[in-house]
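User: tokens in, sequence out, please.
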């Protein structure tokens, strides 16, 4: 896999590696995020890149085509090179629902991220935990396993 590429896996038809060039071929968005980290205070960064939802849509998630709201059962987990990962819900990033403009940044504060890998920018998050740097992998799945793990206690 090329340095800086992201592996897309899970419940999508087009699993595989997305290069930085692929990310740059999609419409580019410009977002500014500012968040508070308990250890280092207020942080502010500007990112450009495609919307996360458009990258995922291009990979054709396994939504039931006959049921428009089936997509609301899907979860997206974003993993950084250091092992940090966090989840967004499909409804959160879908423009027909909450429409949070989460971006897979290929530049940060004007500098190309290149082989460091893209950076997730989640406007509106108050803390930094989902502003994930050095992304290596994104997985998407339905909530099926939440409902098949046996009875509630
Ligand atoms: N890959 C990765 N990204 C991460 C983290 C991490 O541990 N690993 N920590 C998050 C947290 S908790 C914060 S506050 C911000 C810090 O961003 P900064 O480097 O701009 O201060 O990075 C976020 N992104
Ligand atoms: Mo943080």
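Assistant: Sequence out:
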């Amino acid at each position: 896999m090329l340095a800086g590429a992201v592996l897309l896996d899970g419940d999508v038809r087009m699993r595989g590696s997305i290069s930085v060039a692929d990310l740059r071929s999609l419409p580019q968005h410009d977002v500014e995020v500012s968040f508070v980290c308990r250890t280092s205070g207020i942080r502010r960064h500007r990112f450009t890149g495609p919307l996360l939802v458009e990258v995922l849509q291009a990979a054709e998630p396994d939504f039931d085509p006959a049921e428009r709201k089936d997509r609301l059962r899907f979860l997206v987990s974003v993993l950084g090179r250091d092992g940090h990962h966090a989840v967004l819900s499909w409804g959160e990033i879908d423009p027909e629902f909450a429409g949070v403009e989460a971006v897979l940044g290929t530049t940060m504060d004007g500098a190309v991220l290149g082989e460091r890998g893209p950076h997730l920018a989640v406007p509106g998050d108050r803390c930094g935990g989902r502003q994930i740097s050095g992304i290596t992998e994104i997985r998407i799945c339905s909530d099926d396993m939440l409902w098949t793990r046996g009875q509630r206690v």
